[in-house]
Each structure stands twice: as structure tokens, then as C-alpha cells.
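Handout, section B. The chain below has 208 residues.
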Amino acid sequence: MIQVIVVDDHPVVRHGIVAMLRYEEDIEVVGDAADGAEGLRLIGELQPDVVLLDLRMPQLSGVEVMQQARARGYTSRFLVLTTYDTDEYIAPALSAGAQGYLLKDTPPEELVRAVRMLMQGRAALEPGVAARMLARMAESPADELSARELEVLRLLARGDSNKEIAAQLTISENTIKTHLSRIFDKLDARSRTEAVTIAMQRGLLSTG
């Protein structure tokens, strides 16, 4: 069972998400909060698997919640759900520890899929959000990574698993792991999500 907390200061949005998720047999909503400070308290108290988090909230912003949760050693995965799709919001959220970033007009089935993807350790970036961010940053030269490593990174940014990437590139999963290790070293990243975030910030990916 995936335990989830919903943190959003808009009651209609928050209650709607809670009601929707409660229809899923493998998801349990264990709490909800109307501001960042209460959300952080619940995260520490309940230690949920996934936190659905708005960015602009009273007391603590979504980014501040993630930063403080990470500083306290909390291991919950964060899925940002917001109306803002500019790199001004996306990059800080991913840097703060968000494993997912979706817009509030995301179809319900995609939101549920994203929760499950985070539980599997995968990133869940809304394609339009990722594309807009990458388009703004695509002018920087991509000279740090090899062509194959960039291919792997692009599929990683899409949320594909090692097995799926290996199948698409017709190479073994062990080779994918080797590529990922080199990507992490070159980008000084500690996780898949951090590697994608750094690549976006440096303009190492393009939408072409």
C-alpha cells in the first residue's frame, strides 16, 4: 500500500485529490494539510511514501518543505502538483528534491500513474513541463556527455526504467547501469532525478 499525504492550501483542490486517490486500491491517503508548516509536521509524524505538494503556500513554500524535510532526513518522495510551468519554479523544485512535477490540469489517471512511478523510484515529469524547460536551455553546448549518454539521459528524463531504456536502445541493462554511473560522475549527481535536474539546468538536453 502506497501511503500518501496531500499538501495544498486550496481546499477544493486538496479535497478533490484526496477523494480521487481514495478510489485506488493500492493508495492510502494518510493525511492532508492546508499549509507548508503543517505539511512538514505531518511528513515527520507519518513518514508517508509520497507527498503531493503545491509550491506556493502559506508559512512554508513547497520548496522550503522539501528542503527542510531533506535536512531532517525524511525519506518521503515528493510529487509537485502546481499551476506553474516555468523554469523559475521547475528548477528550484527539482533541485530541492522533487521526483515528480505535474500541472494541476493533469488527467487523474496520469496523477495516479505518477504516484506509482515515484514509489518505484522513477521520475515523473509532465512532458510539457520538461519540454518547455529543455527548450529554454537547449542552446548550451552538450559537450560533457557522449551521444549515447545523452540518449540514456533523455529517456531517463522521460521517466523510463533501466529495462525500458535498454529495450529502446537495444543494449543490456548492465550497460545502462554503466552509462548511468558515468553520467552521475560527470554531472556530480547522486540520483536519477538529480542527474536530470542538473542536465536541465546546464542545457545538456534538447527537445529535438
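Note. DSSP finds ten helices and six strands in the chain. Compare this with the example in section A.
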